[in-house]
Amino acid sequence: PCDAVRRPMDELDALYASLTAMVNAAALTPLAAKLAARLGAVNQPRDRGLSDEPTPLLGGTAIFAGVLLAGAIWLPAGEETRAILGGAAVITAVGAIDDVFDIAPHWKLAGQFAAALIPVLAGVRVDNVTLPFLGALDLGDMGGPLTLLGIVAVMNVVNFSDGLDGLAAGVCMISAATFSIIAF
């Protein structure tokens, strides 16, 4: 995987990358929980929560660290990969700051747009979509702005589903597994 000239990622590499990210995120989660407790980034029990005890936040930092390690080992080196990981770093930082300081919604939204803009400016964009029975629809110059809005929309869908302990993480895990099956 760390050859001087990287070959395209195959299905086995994708499986190894997923396992690397999962194992490392799971191993780092207790450390993130200890850091959260030390920083006071703890969610108190509430009516909609499943926990009767305070729940440490900052779990996104452990997930990001696992993904970053897997990406460094298994993803092809290139500007797009760096931009995707850079955008992920920005939104992880925004989430961590929000966990510690509870930042205002307009600042979170600004952070989401900044994070999404990084990969879009590097060329990560949806140029066309296929509509059932109609075929491909070329987005032309609107591909970049629509990709930016789409990434921000997905971030907010996850954020809005985060009212019940573990719901957002579970939805993301199911989505990731589904997209993996589709990609294979």
Helix percent band: 55-70%
How much of the residues is beta strand, in percent? 5-15%
Strand order of the largest sheet: 1-2
Total number of helical segments?
6
- Give the total of beta strands: 4
What's the end-to-end separation, in Å?
Answer: 19 Å
Structural class: mainly alpha
SSE succession: HEEHHHEEHH
Unreliable spans: none
Largest sheet data: 2 strands, antiparallel
Using only C-alpha atoms, the radius of gyration works out to 18 Å
What is the overall silhouette? Answer: globular
Question: Taking all residues together, what is the mean pLDDT?
Answer: 88
Describe the structure.
- The strands form 2 sheets. A two-stranded antiparallel ribbon has the order 1-2. A two-stranded antiparallel ribbon has the order 3-4.
- The protein is mostly helical and 184 residues long.
- The chain is built from 6 helices and 4 strands.
- Helix 2 (59-74) packs antiparallel against helix 3 (79-101).
